[in-house]
Automatic annotation (TrEMBL):
Coiled-coil ranges from the UniProt annotation: none
GO BP term (any one): putrescine biosynthetic process from arginine, via agmatine
Descriptive protein name: Arginase/deacetylase
Taxonomic placement: Eukaryota, Fungi, Dikarya, Basidiomycota, Agaricomycotina
Organism: Armillaria gallica
Residue sites binding Mn(2+) per the record: 48, 71, 73, 75, 164, 166
Length: 256
């Protein structure tokens, strides 16, 4: 199989989709270079490499975008010395995207906890344009501060959200190819996504779901529910308020 050819074909397909007429207001006209409304697509996968052709397609409309990347791995592996076939993997696509100037230097990871190959891996990740929120940072700083850090990092730029299901602890989402212990819970992930509502989203994905490895469909259920949260976050202007009707707590801003 020719990886590069497959990536090119996906880019063509995605470009076609996001240039179709948008149904209703998508809040993208102010971000798009052509001033037009474009569809915002949530992609389901599958191998995380699909983000590369998606970013290439989005770049044609929005220019460089900020990426919010939830994953247990950085996916910014070095590609020096590799053949064209070897360069494109699910662990290096962000490096290639950086080389092609598809992303801003205001991107951010969340949930990182994989084993590192050494300090140069972290330095390289910074060069690609990412800050890192580790899985443990959620324990140390709390959900509200994680949300604030992400929102501050991407600001008002066009934002692409990418979620590898292995950001969730494998006890709650086992159906994935490269599980890492010590992940976030589904509830924590849902709360963070809801806290990102109102950002300038231009697309999103949830990937690396492998149904053959699932137990009782718990991974599929989690993924489907997170997609719903993506869609809501794309449509509303601000995060939900804390508390709910009938609760003993007064409604407060989630980010206070």
């Amino acid at each position: 199989m020719d990886n590069a050819k497959a990536i090119d074909q996906m880019e063509v397909a995605y470009t076609t989709l996001i240039n179709r007429p948008a149904v209703g207001a998508t809040r993208t006209s102010a971000l798009a270079n052509d001033g037009m409304e474009h569809p915002r697509i949530v992609t389901l996968g599958g191998d995380h490499t699909i983000v590369l052709p998606i970013l290439r397609a989005l770049h044609k409309i929005y220019g460089p975008v900020s990426v919010i990347h939830f994953d247990s791995h950085m996916d910014t592996g070095a590609v020096e010395g590799r053949t064209d076939q070897e360069r494109i993997t699910h662990g290096s696509y962000f490096t290639i995207a950086h080389e092609e100037h598809l992303m801003t230097n205001t991107s951010i990871h969340g949930g990182i906890r994989s084993k590192m190959g050494g300090p140069t891996q972290v330095t390289h990740d910074e060069t690609v344009g990412f800050q890192v929120i580790s899985a443990e940072d959620l324990d140390d700083y709390g959900i509200k501060n994680v949300i604030k850090a992400i929102r501050k990092r991407v600001g008002d730029s066009p934002v692409y959200l990418s979620l590898d299901i292995d950001v969730i602890d494998p006890g709650l989402a086992p159906a994935t190819g490269t599980p890492e212990a010590g992940g976030w819970t589904t509830r924590e992930m849902k709360r963070i996504i809801r806290g990102l509502a109102g950002l300038n989203f231009v697309g999103a994905d949830i990937v690396e779901v492998a149904p053959a490895y699932d137990h009782g469909d718990i991974t599929g259920i989690a993924a489907a529910d997170l997609v719903h949260d993506f869609l809501v976050a794309m449509q509303v202007d601000e995060p939900p308020k804390a508390g709910h009707k009938g609760s003993p707590w007064a409604a407060e801003d989630l980010l206070q």
